[in-house]
Automatic annotation (TrEMBL):
Alphabetized Pfam families for the sequence: ABC_tran (PF00005)
Protein name: ATP-binding cassette domain-containing protein
Keywords assigned by UniProt, alphabetized: ATP-binding, Nucleotide-binding, Transport
GO molecular function: ATP binding; ATP hydrolysis activity; transmembrane transporter activity
CDD domains assigned: ABC_MJ0796_LolCDE_FtsE
Residues passing through the membrane, by range: none
GO CC annotations, alphabetized: membrane protein complex; plasma membrane
Residue ranges annotated for the ABC transporter domain, each copy included: 6-238
Keyword Nucleotide-binding: yes
Organism the protein comes from: Ruthenibacterium lactatiformans
Amino acid sequence: MDAPIIDMHGIVKRFPIGTGEELEVLHGIDLTVRKGEFVAIVGASGSGKSTLMNIIGALDRPTEGTYVLDGVDVGTLRDKQLSRIRCRKIGFVFQTFNLVPRTSALKNVALPMMYNGVRGTARTQRARALLDMVEMGDRAGHAPSQLSGGQKQRVAIARAMANDPAILLADEPTGALDSATGRLVMDLFHRLHREQGKTIVLITHSPELAGECQRIVTIKDGRVTGVRRGGGAADAAV
Ligand code: ADP
Ligand code: MG
């Protein structure tokens, strides 16, 4: 069995709200994801999925608990080290795409490579290859406003792949798309999982899409209330 790439124990997250008060959103989450696994996280709005995703993606730190990301205890890292790990190991995909406006698809995809120190020509070449991979090569010069929702999401997935991260984190990536377009985006995730061995954590409201993953983790009110195998779990143990 492959080693865990995401290993969380007792994750608690509290947010300060106003005068000295705090809101506890996650109440002690344990979550282990193996390298190359495709996991869905499901749960009602407000249950803490995005808060958890931000911690998995090292965009935020837990208030309590331990998180070991690909063998590194993130609690021991300074902010700068944490950003570097995030930049190299994690690709993010969001419901609302979060592309840089008035900037071409090509430059959007090249941007994370710039932060990672990849030089100009190599950056452009790889950005073009990634756009080809998501079948957006003929839209390289288009700004996000000139693209459809599905096209924007494909560019965003190409961008998430820029630094060849081990983990793709997708927070309701099909939530703003019609079901046929969402289907194409989901197929792309399946392909990246199958062909490139990416570890994928997908937050979704769609029971159908969740059911295609290898494991489905249900979150309710900041707690994991269920874990089950999905249709994509060929021989994976829960
Ligand atoms: P989900 O993604 O499952 O819809 P979220 O993780 O976005 O849920 O939010 C869970 C709860 O945490 C909500 O009640 C939300 O208002 C609260 N929350 C999220 N982020 C913050 C924050 N930065 N400060 C205060 N409360 C927050
Ligand atoms: Mg959310």
